[in-house]
Amino acid sequence: MSSFFSKRLLITLAVVCAAVGANGFIAYTQILGQSEADTWMARSLQMKEDLEAYLHGLYDERALYEAAAKHHKDVPQAQVERSATDLRRIAERMRRTVAGDRAQLAALDNLDDKVTRWRADLELATPGHGTVPDDPELADDRRDVSDALAALRVHEDHALADRLAQSAHRTRAATITLLFATLSGIGLLVYAFAIRDRAARERMRAAQVARQSDARFRQLFDAHPVTMWIYDASTLEILAVNSMAVKQLGYSESEFRAMTLLDFRPDSEKQRLARFLSRHAPNQLDDGRTRAGIWHYLRRDGSIFSADITFYPLTFDGRFSTAVLAEDLTSQLSAEAALTQSNQMLESIIDNIPQRIYWKDLDSRFLGSNSAFARDAGFAYPEQVVGRADAELPWAHDIDRQRKRDLDVLTTGVPQLNYEDEIVVDGQRHAIVANVLPLKDANGQTVGVLGSYTDVTDRKRTDQALRIQSRAVDASVNAILITMHVDGQNVIEYVNPAFRRITGYETHEVIGKDCRFLQRDDNQQEGLVALRSAMRANREVSAVLRNYRKDGALFWNQLYIAPVPDADGTITHHVGVINDVTELIRYQEQLEYQANYDALTHLPNRNLLRDRLSQALSRAQRGSGRVAVVFLDLDGFKNVNDSLGHSFGDKLLTVVAGRLGACVRASDTVARHGGDEFVVVLTDPEDERALNNWAERVRHAIGEPVWIDEHEFYVGCSLGASLFPQDGEDAETLLKKADLAMYRAKDLGRNRFQFYQPEMNESVGTRLNLERRLRRALRDNEFVLQYQPQIDIATGRIVGLEALVRWQDPEAGLVMPSEFIPIAEESGLIEAIGEWVLREACRQNQAWQDAGLPPARVSVNLSARQFHRADIRQIVLSVLEQTRLAPEYLEIELTESVIMTNAEEAAEMLNQLHDIGIHLTIDDFGTGYSSLSYLKRFPVDRLKIDRSFVSDIGVSHDDETIITAIITLAHALNLQVIAEGVETTSQLDFLVAHGCNEIQGYLYSQPVDHGLIPELLSSDGIFEAATV
């Protein structure tokens, strides 16, 4: 059988292809017949469902009268009216279903009359709160209604059988026509369809005979040819079955008797059965039969038995029971399913052809189409297209051109192929490529046209998009190149005009070259390693490279490369985008220099000092060498600075730096530690006597008179030294001990040199006492916050408040953070203090917002220990949740040195914090070391210019250059800039002129207690934006 169906499928496919190509009309005739049969089958099923719903509605209506009578209430007229409305709606739907069938319409009229009379009698028999008597007239009415419904069912069955026979006749006629229209080899197809048609008609005839047998022998039970069983109406237990039930379902009689009605029901129908029984309880069944429709049962072997079920109430063995007649429809349903499947297969093949297909008659009216065409025409089904003309379709405005093309094909018989046109679909114009051919019958006579078209709108849009993209690439300010991988090289296939502008090479000079020629001999760059690795892995990559123009000039570029796969997913090309970042790299180099060198003296700063000291210690440890760390502080420098101004002080520091540099070897390091403090790292000193001699030379050199602007100055210096390895083995320890020694030298009268001695640690006791008091301060809540406003330069309004911690010490009064934060960091108390600051600042900010004040962000500084905690994200989330502060009103400030300690870890931590929704700011920017490649990866929102640069505006051109570079860099990275320590209008004017976004400083407000903030937030603006 499977071989037969396979052959039939192949033959069917061949016929469909032939029908589309040349014999569409013959295929259409067959499809039309089968479609008509399906339509009548759907009508019959709809009619039966409506009859069943109508009957149930009548029962429900009668139940309303009975319930009212039972409870001595008025009949609920509203529900009766709704029930009557539902029945009228069902009756109207049945009339539409059988429109044109006079017999069925007459039967429906008869049913309406019976129902009307039954309702009238029911109302007469149920007056007021009376009961519904067992009136003979009501019984007659119910029988009349049941008979009318039964007559409708019988007539519908006959009508269906007639239509199925007609469909079979049309199918046979089409098959015969197809026999004469095709080659002799198609005879096999005719034979296959004839066999299928005969088998279908035989199965339908068998089903019809079964139904007729049901009418003739339904009074019999055990010998009845129809499956029957009897069950207890209350318990649903099977009381008896006939031999046909045993045969059909496969259970023995004893097995049946041990079962209930639910035991041989599929799970999918058990709820349906429960609903049916609840509507048709034993005491609600009429004296006549009850048609339940088609139900499904489980055979003993697990297969499905389908039957048309009829119920009869009866008394069996003294028990109120129900007899079930199960008219076997399994074969009939299988035949109908096969017929439907065949039709669906033919339609599916045509519907799945990608082109839209249609066929018209000689008058250009549509005879049929596939689903794709129907959808374009605005219909859900192809049947809705039949009989319509182009004037009724969305493209009616083009009817003249359509009609002329049809007439040309009908007149000349010459197909019009692959012509371009436009149609309207869903109100939009679509581009198509169409074909129109003459449609001929089996005799070769032209009976219409066969048309098809393909929607090429998306293809045209794609072509347009490609042209636009090509233009965009040509117009890009970035250089773009496309390479193809050939024999281990990435050969250039395309470059845009920007490539020629940036590199100086003409297109013909680079096409066919490996793109690596831009690096020349500079092919061991760090970025190239990552780039090659990514290209081998076929993934996107971005790297900063040094390239060389045609004239040999070096330029830095940010190169982004993306692989391009073909249709099979194989990487065949790469697209490269070159962004000239030479200026940014120069800014970065300048910032890197500033991060490692003091801008005033050009000596190494603290960052570079620690690095060089660590390197010197590592070399000494490997070679058993010695290292001396000397702390130097100028004596009397403050007097010069205070009396003559910062400019004189800066010049003096420059002179001292030069004299110190002249006193050391190339292997030594002189660094400015801050203010008037310098640190010297001496490698491999001979002994302490030699160090004393060197210190004398330094004191003598610095003690020489200094002439600045015709002013003569004299300054001295105090020096303290610590030695490796006896005083310590790490940089921090040696620096601290050298610092202690230097302060000891000052205590002894200044202008002295002291080596570190262990007794100097006695000062540590003071620090321990301070640590103890700090712990008490945490316990007794002695810390307070002051807030310094941050001003938007453009609007003059407060947009943020920096929270600054103070210590209200009962012994010393208000203590500034510079006095206790270092101890807190050393002791680890900084984490607890920092968390208190974070929580209090968020709480206070939310309190201001709850009071109706304009919202502003609050900035909180995080220490290195806090930032590097693994749970810092959870701490921030917890504080925000507990204080109810929205994340956008919290800003975290971190110094460059904190972030760059471990840039990779910092990037991950910053991303975690940024994902919360808070703002991130790099504090004291320009004083540390920030790599541009890392900076652009950090999800920060703004950079804060350190006050040391701001204070030198108008004094130091170098500091002004640094500020300008920071602002330019920030804006290039889409970051905001805030400057701290703004104290003069000249500083403000400079910042405004160079595009700074926000400022903070004593020019507008010193840090104030929280009680003064509401007045500031409520004001229209701290200063007028117009002045800016």
From TrEMBL:
Domain PAC, residue spans: 415-468, 539-593
Keywords, alphabetical: Membrane, Transmembrane, Transmembrane helix
Catalysed conversion reaction: 3',3'-c-di-GMP + H2O = 5'-phosphoguanylyl(3'->5')guanosine + H(+)
GO MF annotations, alphabetized: cyclic-guanylate-specific phosphodiesterase activity
Organism domain of life: Bacteria
SMART domains referenced in this protein's UniProt entry, alphabetically: EAL (SM00052), GGDEF (SM00267), PAC (SM00086), PAS (SM00091)
InterPro entries: Biofilm_reg_signaling (IPR052155), EAL_dom (IPR001633), EAL_sf (IPR035919), GGDEF_dom (IPR000160), Nucleotide_cyclase (IPR029787), PAC (IPR001610), PAS (IPR000014), PAS-assoc_C (IPR000700)
Statement: the UniProt record of this protein carries the keyword Transmembrane helix: yes
Transmembrane domains' residue ranges: 173-195
Example GO BP: cellular response to nitric oxide
Keyword Transcription in record: no
Residues covered by the PAS domain: 213-284, 471-538
Record-annotated EAL domain positions: 767-1021
NCBIfam families in UniProt: GGDEF, sensory_box
Protein name (database record): EAL domain-containing protein
Naturally occurring in which organism (per UniProt): Pararobbsia silviterrae
